[in-house]
Amino acid sequence: MPDLLKIAALGILLVLSAKPVLAKDQSAPAPVIFDCWEPERTFKQCAATGPDGRPRLKRSYSARLRYDPDGLASVMLFNGTDKRKFQWYYVRRGVAPVPVETMDNGPDYFEDGLARSPVSGKIGYIDRKLNLVIPAIYDGAYPFKDGVAVVCTACSYVSDSTATEGERGWYEGGQWGRIDRTGRVVSPFRPRRKANRSNSTDG
C-alpha cells in the first residue's frame, strides 16, 4: 500500500510540474513572418517577429542590404497574406529594425537629423542611431524644418481619396504646436480647424 501511495504522489507531482510548461507553450504566439519588398523584386520570408514582437531580419537578407555611410539601410516589410499592410523600417547592423513613417512612397527622410517613428499608434522622432530621442506622444507630426517641427494631438490623418498615386494626405482637428529638436514646445498648442495641407505628408 505505501508503494502505491508513493507512485500516486509521484504521478501528481509530475502532472503539476508539467502544467506550467504546457500553459506557456500554448500561450506563446506564433511568430509573424514578413516578406521584404524592393523595386521589381520581393524576398519571401525575409523577417519574423522576435520574442519582443519586433521584426528581425534574417541574416542572409540583412547582409545584402545597402548601408549608407552612417550604417543605415531601409526596408519595407509586409505580411504575405495582406500586401496592403506594409511598414517601412530603418535598419542598423546589430539593432532591431525601427519603424518609420512613409514619405513620398518611401521611408521618412531624416530632416535636421531626425525622422518620424510610430510607436503604439503615436508618433515620435528617432535619430540616425535609431534612438527614440523625442517620445512618441503625438497623434500627428510633420518632418523637421529649420530646427522646428509642427505636431498635433487629438488630430486625425486624412487621405485624399481623389489623389493620384504619390499624392499626400494631411492632419485635421486637434491641438497644434511646434517643438524643437530636443522635444521642447516652442509654440503653444492651439486648436486648428482647417486642414493643414501646406505641410502634407504620405503619413
Protein model, in words:
This protein is mainly beta. It has 2 domains: 29-100, no CATH class; 102-203, no CATH class. 15% of the residues lie in helices and 44% in strands. It contains 2 helices and 17 strands. The strands form 5 sheets. Strands 3-2-1-4-5-6 form a 6-stranded antiparallel beta sheet. It has a 4-stranded antiparallel beta sheet with strand order 12-13-16-17, with no helix packed on it. A hairpin with a 5-residue loop joins strand 2 (41-49) and strand 3. It is globular, with a radius of gyration of 23 Å.
Give the strand tally: 17
Strand content: 35-45%
Oligomer: single chain
Strand order of the largest sheet: 3-2-1-4-5-6
Low confidence ranges: 4-25
Gyration radius, rounded? 23 Å
Count helical runs: 2
Element-by-element helix/strand order? HEEEHEEEEEEEEEEEEEE
Summarize model confidence as the mean pLDDT: 83
Shape: globular
Distance between the termini: 74 Å
Biggest sheet, in brief? 6 strands, antiparallel
What is the number of independent domains? 2
The residue fraction in helices comes out at: 10-25%
SS-based class: mainly beta
